Amino acid sequence: MRLDKFLKVSRLVKRRTLAKEVCDQGRVEVNGKTAKASADIAVGDELTLRYGNQTVKVRVESLRETTKKTEAAELYTLLEQVPPDKAEGTSGRNL
């Protein structure tokens, strides 16, 4: 499955076009390497997403073409979530 589609179906990112933009900006890594939106992902891959000044790391548990909102969290396991005030390169201020 394409990375941008997984991000949308799992609801890690709200829209697929936004998922593509985040990937194009180099803010998504698959298994430690920067990935394009078209990258194929598989069960067991680890994704790292940087949202502004927050970092989220998840492991892919399942791949589905569509999901209900209540089932979306079953597609991945949250490994790490760095809150905005502890993310790298931040000064703790809101800009």
From TrEMBL:
Domain RNA-binding S4 intervals: 1-65
PROSITE patterns membership: S4
Gene Ontology BP annotations: rescue of stalled ribosome
Keywords associated with the record: Protein biosynthesis, RNA-binding, rRNA-binding, Stress response, tRNA-binding
Pfam families xref list: S4
Cleavable signal peptide: none
MF (Gene Ontology): ribosomal large subunit binding; rRNA binding; tRNA binding
Family matches, as SUPFAM superfamilies: Alpha-L RNA-binding motif (SSF55174)
Quaternary structure annotation from Swiss-Prot or TrEMBL: Associates with stalled 50S ribosomal subunits. Binds to RqcH, 23S rRNA and the P-site tRNA. Does not require RqcH for association with 50S subunits.
Task of the protein: Key component of the ribosome quality control system (RQC), a ribosome-associated complex that mediates the extraction of incompletely synthesized nascent chains from stalled ribosomes and their subsequent degradation. RqcH recruits Ala-charged tRNA, and with RqcP directs the elongation of stalled nascent chains on 50S ribosomal subunits, leading to non-templated C-terminal alanine extensions (Ala tail). The Ala tail promotes nascent chain degradation. RqcP is associated with the translocation-like movement of the peptidyl-tRNA from the A-site into the P-site.
Recorded family membership: Belongs to the RqcP family.
Protein name in the entry: RQC P-site tRNA stabilizing factor
Lineage of the organism: Bacteria, Bacillati, Bacillota, Bacilli, Bacillales
